[in-house]
From TrEMBL:
Pfam families: Glyoxalase (PF00903), Glyoxalase_6 (PF18029). It comes from the Bacteria. The lineage of its organism: Bacteria, Bacillati, Actinomycetota, Actinomycetes, Kitasatosporales. It comes from Streptomyces roseolilacinus. This is VOC domain-containing protein. CDD domains: SgaA_N_like (cd07247). InterPro entries: Anthracycline_SecMetBiosynth (IPR052164), Glyas_Bleomycin-R_OHBP_Dase (IPR029068), Glyas_Fos-R_dOase_dom (IPR004360), Glyoxalase_6 (IPR041581), VOC_core (IPR037523). Residues 11-125, 141-256 form the VOC domain.
Length: 259
């Protein structure tokens, strides 16, 4: 891995989805985003990497048949030392659920949850650096990750302790939203939504994917067997909608502001 490909610790570097029906899920996202697929590391079980214009942008794996877990997208944050980060997670009040373990020669991973219960991954890259860079505004590419939780303050302290994130400028009055900065650059955000947090999901990381037309993409989600949870609307970030795939994995589609 070149130095140019290396992500600074705390930077989102990969997104991965675990589902029960791998083939049907590939069909859904292939139709929605134009993804193609290639096999991933065999150590991860049935797992594929999604390609956009030949570049790896996301992963999809099959859940163990004996586990009644819901499908969900997981954001991975970069680390120079997955074992040390896992220990920092524990010391900070989080939980380590899986790992640290090697994914062949690709790298080393951990699956954790923060003190609010939001699940995230840790990725120490070796041969595989994570999401490949694509042109800005490319439909089908992951473009942002946001943590939705009850309130931001305590959760931001956790990520600052574990990854060294610096909080960004204060949000406008009445908004509980904090940008997480790495090297002075915003890489993710934490939004406190209070009682609006879905009871069936709790605190969770949300991945945003770029689309050319959120209204058309939302209709396509429904045609493919998914659901629209929040209809397209305009906001500071652009035009967004919250949707779920046929297995219930939730994500945001966005036409970024300025496009």
């Amino acid at each position: 891995m070149t130095e140019a490909a290396r992500r600074e610790p705390g930077t989102p570097c990969w997104v991965s989805l675990m589902v029960r029906g791998l083939d049907a899920t590939k069909d859904f996202y292939g139709e929605l985003f134009g993804w193609e697929f290639q096999p991933g590391p065999p150590q991860l079980g049935p797992y594929v990497r999604a390609l956009l214009d030949g570049r790896e942008v996301a992963g999809i794996g099959r859940l163990p048949a004996d586990r009644g877990l819901p499908g969900a997208w997981t954001a991975y944050l970069a680390s120079d030392d997955a074992d040390r980060t896992a220990e920092s997670v524990r010391c900070g009040g989080g939980t380590v659920a899986v790992g640290p373990l090697d994914a062949g020669d690709a790298g080393r991973l951990v699956i954790c949850s923060d003190p609010s219960g939001a699940v995230f991954g840790v990725w120490q890259a070796a041969a595989f650096p994570g999401t490949a860079p694509v042109a800005e505004g490319t439909p089908g590419a992951p473009v942002w990750n946001e943590l939705l939780t009850h309130e931001s303050e305590s959760v931001v302290k956790f990520y600052r302790t574990v990854f060294g994130h610096e909080p960004g400028p204060a949000a406008p009055a009445g908004q509980d939203r904090v940008a997480l900065l790495v090297g002075g650059r915003p890489v993710a955000s934490v939004r406190g939504v209070g009682t609006a947090l879905p009871r069936d999901r709790g605190a969770h990381w949300m991945t945003w994917f770029e689309v050319a037309d959120p209204d058309a993409a939302a209709r396509r989600v429904e045609e493919l067997g998914g659901r629209v949870l929040r209809a397209p609307e305009d906001g500071a970030e652009g035009r967004t909608a919250t949707v779920a795939d046929p297995e219930g994995a939730v994500f945001t589609i966005v036409r970024s502001a300025g496009r």
